[in-house]
Write a structure and sequence with these properties.
Order of helices and strands of chain A: HEEEEHEEEEH
Helix content of chain A: 25-40%
Largest interface: A-D, 22 and 22 residues
Strand order of the largest sheet of chain A: 1-2-6-7-8-5
Oligomer: homotetramer
Structural class of chain A: alpha+beta
Distance between the termini of chain A: 15 Å
């Protein structure tokens, strides 16, 4: 399993444009954080849906790499999000990912998204990632 | 919150054709069981997908009624299932439901499905239920 | 591409328990029919959700086999259904499938489900199927 | 039904940060365009997933407003995306939306996403939108 620092460095190098940072990694799991500012807000003071999806995508990606290694290629094949509550305009978004299956060619995980400090989640995501045959043979 | 017995009686009366039985109900949660026999199996000795979906649907239904009452009407609007592992042909299917949101008009929950006795889930479901306005005004 | 008769014979042999019959097959597409009787109905005279999901699953399966051959193995990995309208209790369910992607290891398709004779669909399904490496190398 | 110009003006006013423009609106349908530049690309020269989801969200939003009016409130409740092919780094993304159901409280639609000039879609989205009771009574 990779350390939080290895994953954080990798993310910063490979995705310099992401605003997500790695909070923690664990067994088949990861937690990421996304600061919320003017760019992430919609009229009415809510975090835009695509921002929530992007946080979930990064949380899944970090959890998967933590499990199968940084050299692996993974491609998002399906992402399904349920918006549950209006996120806070003043709090970071936290994405809490648990992998449900780590197969040779398919990986499935779920992410619960929170506005930091609130108990009830703002959204829930299930994502499927394909590991291309080239890497799958590792 | 309704008791397990109230929900079990209701289910047996309203859905005499279901093979699901109520194992337990809790705060925004429910557990149901489905016996597996010849009718539920596909060639190759695996439980058919629609059976798994039906178990998830009942688990969500029971958890929702436990929360909002037996007189309520609910309509499944969306169900998304990820098949994770081949279920056992010899074990009951257990559906473990947790509600993620109980809103006035929309309820969202997830169900993790197991072959009894195995640790890793065989499938994972997220479902959305609509509470029609007539009942929503309760 | 396989003929309708080849697929119908295959389905009847491999899935003797299915009530679906093959209506037509075409380029990356298939249409199936499911008779509706007492067993498929819920209280209130509506077709049960799992029946609709089962019809969609067969429609996708037939369309996929029509494309990649009867010897192929495919495994449903994800199925997402939106229930749109109450199906008629007196009409067959028709499942109209179009494949959106036929990849080497992943196939994605959508199915629109109708109560025969009605214009507006009763449900819409998107499904993902995995073609295991053994067959993928064909 | 609202005109393309009315919807384009509304979108530009209400969502000044969106890069989507309205291509056309029709009966229960809409087409939008999103220019692709450096900001939308991932390493490897592919359009990022959240950008595709954002285009789908706008296409659904425009189609819905075209149907139920600009004064209506709608909230995305579920969005499910299947990534089908690698988008081109050099072509605009086109989102083609068709509404499957326009109910009083729930609206469901699908969006097929293309890299302009290519026949095969790069992604497919199904989204559900809730119309809050206040507006639902319109």
């Amino acid at each position: 399993m990779l350390s939080k620092n290895e994953l954080a460095t990798f993310l910063a190098t490979e995705f310099p444009q992401t605003k997500c940072s790695v909070e923690s990694v664990g067994l088949r799991s990861a937690k990421v954080r996304h600061e919320i500012g003017f760019e992430e807000l919609r009229p009415g003071g809510t975090v835009s849906g695509p921002v929530l999806m992007a946080v979930a995508d990064v949380a899944l990606y970090v959890a998967i790499l933590g499990e199968i290694g940084l050299e692996a290629l993974t491609v998002t094949t399906n992402l399904s999000i349920n918006f549950l509550r209006k996120p806070s305009a003043d709090a970071d978004i936290i994405g809490d990912c648990v992998l449900l299956k780590v197969g040779k060619t398919l990986i499935v995980g779920e992410v619960t998204l929170y506005s930091e400090g609130l108990v009830d989640p703002v959204a829930h995501v299930v994502g499927t990632y394909s590991v291309p045959p080239a890497t799958a043979g590792r």
